[in-house]
Amino acid sequence: xxxxxxxxxxxxxxxxxxxxxxxxxxxxxxxxxxxxxxxxxxxxxxxxxxxxxxxxxxxxxxxxxxxxxxxxxxxxxxxxxxxxxxxxxxxxxxxxxxxxxxxxxxxxxxxxxxxxxxxxxxxxxxxxxxxxxxxxxxxxxxxxxxxxxxxxxxxxxxxxxxxxxxxxxxxxxxxxxxxxxxxxxxxxxxxxxxxxxxxxxxxxxxxxxxxxxxxxxxxxxxxxxxxxxxxxxxxxxxxxxxxxxxxxxxxxxxxxxxxxxxxxxxxxxxxxxxxxxxxxxxxxxxxxxxxxxxxxxxxxxxxxxxxxxxxxxxxxxxxxxxxxxxxxxxxxxxxxxxx
Length: 339
Hints:
Layout: H1 16-23, H2 27-34, H3 42-55, H4 61-69, E1 73-79, H5 84-99, E2 103-109, H6 114-123, E3 128-132, H7 137-140, E4 147-150, E5 163-167, H8 169-182, E6 188-192, H9 198-213, E7 220-223, H10 228-241, E8 246-249, H11 252-264, E9 274-279, H12 282-286, E10 292-295, H13 298-314, E11 325-328, E12 331-333
Parallel strand pairs: 1-2, 1-3, 3-4, 4-5, 5-11, 6-7, 6-8, 8-9, 9-10
Antiparallel strand pairs: 10-12
Helix pairs in contact: 1-2, 1-3, 2-6, 5-13, 8-9, 10-11
């Protein structure tokens, strides 16, 4: 983004996340203001509208057109931070949707604004929703349009209510840590998002499985966001406890951030400390040193999720459609960040 003044200048192109940051509110709150939702306090509404006017922000015209024309729209709902991982999944989704003359409307939201985000998509009269990531088991059961979960994990008690396309996160994490152990690493730490994230919890289980099996006495779990900054901060917390000889980060962006912290502090990768990430995003290949990673079949995941949702949309009146739980295979890409 080009910036020439306080808000970024006339040439800046703003997103709803930029407006939310400027106003000090969530993305969902800005969305509610734009759609004139009655639940927003007047003071907050005035503050957001003032910023929108000052920066000449133009709400997504495509989204408004979708609502007016009532096209065949599928909603894609993502909680958390934008991540290249999601871009590839969405690419797979869109590829299948185009075959059926469907289009997608992508909506990022914070977890606390989840219900508002769902309501926004429903207002656009989406035919169904593909949900990517986050902790929302209790919220999902109230969605009345066809729903497919991709790249996320929920408890088995809900597995008969939604189609799911994911991987075996526990096994993948176990194999990652076992790989590091096989390279001679004995002090392996893990950087996760938080303890409310189902994906993180599954990967912690795999981490502990491998640590326990090898009877290692080093076990450090540090939290960070699903960002490079989160990985950097997670590594910093880990070093304050005890320096590891290897780090397993549950996303590639976190691994890249952790690598930056290690190098800044005078250590070599992988001579002093090995790092392995998760996802297989393109950025992990071109970072230096390139990051060893567990590659998820991101586009295939999106394609499978779209196919399942399309099937539900076409057979919406058939409430007896058997829900599928598809587990895709992952594979390791060994690069420069491990011995």
